Hints:
The chain is an alpha/beta fold. The protein contains nine helices and eleven strands.
Amino acid sequence: MSTIKDITSLEQWEQHLSSLPPSTLLIVSFHAPWAAPCAQMATVLSTLASEYPATEPLSTSWVSVDAEELSDVSEAYNVTAVPFLVLVRGGQVLETVSGSSAVKVRNAIESHAKQSGKEGTALETTGANGTAASVQTNNTADSTPEDPEKKKEELFKRLGDLVKAAPVMLFMKGTPSEPKCGFSRQLVALLRENAVKYGFFNILADDDVRQGLKEFADWPTYPQLWMDGELVGGLDIVKEELANDADFFKSHSVKSAVDGAAAS
C-alpha cells in the first residue's frame, strides 16, 4: 500500500519530482502545524493512500509539505491557506482542493487516479529551481450552470472553515512577505511586534473569497483580522483594541507561551 512521504527540504522536493515517471499522479498535501484542520486531513489522506498499491512504476505518489517551512514550494503552487491539496501529473496541475472536506479530496483523487492525465489543461507549475509560476485549478466539470443559492451556501461554509483555520487569521492583500497594500503591511507588522502566531489568506488569489467574505463578515474592506473564529476588524480597530488593552494579543502570543513555560 502507498504511504505519505514528508518532504522537509527544497532539495528533497526537487529530487522527488525528478524521480517520478510522467504517468504518476502526485498528491501533494500542504499543511501547517498550527492549523487544526490539517491534522484531520492528514488522517484522511493516510487512509486514502493505504487504498492505493505501491506499484512499479508508481501510479500514485503521496507527499506532505509544511507550507511555511517550504514557502518557495507553497508560492509556486499558489497556496494561500491550509490544508491545501494539489494534484499533479507530468508537470501539470490537474486540480487543487482547499479546505478539509474529505469528500472533495477523495473525489478529486479518485477522478484523476483513473485518468491518463491527457484530459487536464496544460498549466505552468514549478521550475527546476522551485521558482513561482502561474497555477490555477482545472475545473472541467463545471459545464452546467450552478444554483446561485447553493453556490453561496457552499462558499459561506468554506468561509466559515477558513476563518477558523487558525486561532488568529489574517485576510490580507498579498502575503506577509509581500503585502500588496499599506494597511495589510501595517497589520502584519503589528502581529509580528506582538509575537502573534497567525494564519493568513491572500484574498487577491481567490476572488470568491475576496467578494464573499465582505458579505459573510458584514465588513467591506481589507485587511480583516479574525480571532477564534470571530471578526476583530481592520487595521484601525486592531490599533484601537491595542491602545485600550496592551495585552489584547497576549493569549495568542508566542512570547507569552514561552514565558509561561519558563515560569512553570
